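Quick one, T. Sequence first:
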Amino acid sequence: MSTLSIHCLKPSALRLPSGIPGSPGRQRRHTLPANEFRCLTPEDAAGVFEIEREAFVSVSGNCPLNLDEVRHFLTLCPELSLGWFVEGRLVAFIIGSLWDEERLTQASLTLHRPGGHAAHLHVLAVHRTFRRQGKGSVLLWRYLHHVGGQLAVHRAVLMCEDPLVPFYQRFGFHPVGPCAIVVGSLTFTEMHCSLQGHAALRRNSDP
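C-alpha cells:
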C-alpha cells in the first residue's frame, strides 16, 4: 500500500495556547538546528517503543501499542506520526492513523483506514529525562498543525483517562462521552477536535 512521502516539517510561526512554553527553537534561535520535528519511519520503531514502554508500563502496566503495532503504523501511515529529535535523539513522539467512523471502537486500536477523515492519536509520550518541560504540549500543538494541513484529515480523535481531559481541552479537544474501548480495568473518555482552525493556520504560515 502506498503512503505519502516522509518529510521534515519546516519551522513556522505557531501561536501556542496561553500557558504553554515555546519550544527551544522559538526561545533560542541559535539552538534551532539541534531541534528537529519530522514524521517517523519504521527505523524509528525501536526507539519509539523504548520511550512508550517506560512511560506507560510503570503507570498502567500496558502499552497503547506493542512494537509490532508501532512498526505497522509507521509503515502504513508515517505521515500521521511526528517525532521531536534533540541533537538526533528522539525525545517525544505521537503516532496516529486514520479512522472512518464517528466514534472509536476496539478495532480502531489496530487499524488504519485510508478513507477516513479522523486522525486517531494512539499515543503521545515523552522521554523521562525531558518530562515536565512542556515538550508534550509543544509537540501536540505542532502535530495538530501538521495533520490539519492534510486535506483528508478533518478532525482529531483520542481516548484518555479522566485526569488528562483538561490537558487536551487546552488544545481544542472536547469530550464526547465515555469511550467504548476498555483496557483491563481502565476506562476512558473519548475526545474530538476540529482541525479547521489548524488547517487555516498552516495555510497562513506557509511561504
